[in-house]
Design goal:
homodimer; 231 residues; alpha+beta; Arc Repressor Mutant, subunit A; 2 domains; 3-stranded antiparallel beta sheet; two-stranded antiparallel ribbon; 10 helices; 11 strands; 17% strand; DNA-binding
Chain lengths: 231, 231
Amino acid sequence: MNSNPNLAEVASLIGNPSRAAMLVSLLGGKALPAGDLARAAGISPQTASTHLAKLIHAGLLIQESYGRHKYFRLANSEVGHALEALQTISPPKPIRSLRESNQLHALQFARTCYDHLAGKIGVALTDRLLEMNFIEKSGKEFLLNAKGKIKLHEFGVTVEKSPKSRRCFARQCLDWSERRYHLAGSLGASLTRRLFELKWIENLPDGRAVRVTDAGIKGLSDEFGLHLTIE
Amino acid sequence: MNSNPNLAEVASLIGNPSRAAMLVSLLGGKALPAGDLARAAGISPQTASTHLAKLIHAGLLIQESYGRHKYFRLANSEVGHALEALQTISPPKPIRSLRESNQLHALQFARTCYDHLAGKIGVALTDRLLEMNFIEKSGKEFLLNAKGKIKLHEFGVTVEKSPKSRRCFARQCLDWSERRYHLAGSLGASLTRRLFELKWIENLPDGRAVRVTDAGIKGLSDEFGLHLTIE
DNA sequence: GCAATATTTCGGTTATCATCGAAGTATGAA
DNA sequence: TTCATACTTCGATGATAACCGAAATATTGC
């Protein structure tokens, strides 16, 4: 019987540990060169090259060439969505090293999820927006009310729901580390972009973990009543 | 670097063609015995047994024993969601036989997707509910308005949003065959259950394709202005 | 108790594929 | 031109796992 779309092919591509590591590295939304992806997966450049070719062929990644560098990124948000959906049904992986443990903590604390903020911070900020009555839950979606619209506009976030873009405005995205929802969609992305702009958060050297700066700690407290504690 | 939850393990489980076939068979939401799943995947019972044990171990399936039969079903709706998300990024599989072609047409026309209605019919019925102003789009979610609440209540659908259930009320589910949204969530499930109850739709012998009965053709036309054409 | 059905366990075979060394291509720098 | 860097292709190796035959276990029906 075997129905139709061959999901097994795509799943087995994601199912290789090296390829999965590369895809997860790209979940942050940024494009990365082949060498970086090889290092992220802990494999040789040759091996990475064959993997990347397969991912391109399957339409999971797209490639941009800049001189001798080739940058890779997720082909579209549906790929990111599928990866996140897989993460929510994946059991947690045992930790091997202190380094991994530290990185895991950093990721659980704050990271970007494709293009918006996730981790403890992502969930906590979303909670504050709810508590301060700027957004409301509505099924698998958040609604931005008038009060919130004003607040975010003042904060410098361009709040516009372009009717053209089929993209969801303020999705609820299930956080794999917190197992709770954080703010995603175009609103989540705009807000996150603004936080980078203000230098309240910044990318850590590699991976998609982010760090909250001193300015960010103060700012998030003043603007959103989000009090960060050092753990 | 390799972040944390080992998504690769789950993905590689889904990535085996035999296991994928079994999982897809279970997407209809029904529980099936091991033997049926073996046949669906075209493998021997021994092989199926080892596959099923792995899927159970990984938490993708749950098992219920009735005498010498063991029934398997998807562990939760998140597993179904992940499978659907993978289908949306999977390329269509080439058709080999007339039989496969017919089955594909049947699936594209009407099928159950975990527990709600999908395919042409699923999308068309959702469209009618929108056009008749019973539900409204709101991001990745539908909202049931007062008019719709009355209509569906009259129609015999129990419309209640139990605050306990974390499940989404009226999700928009991306249809892999139509590439458009249909009504999912608990409302989608209730409505579909009612259509079965009224015998407006019925399961086809195997798989998750469904057939619209004569009563269904008349009923859908009368109640929702959905005029089915024979293709 | 005995035969039939449903499922699981074991063992051995086979095929696939991830991997890297070595060599090849392309771009940029000196 | 020459060298260095970034990536790709080829070929060989090795490990994994899907698969089925055979046999074991469990349940139902006679």
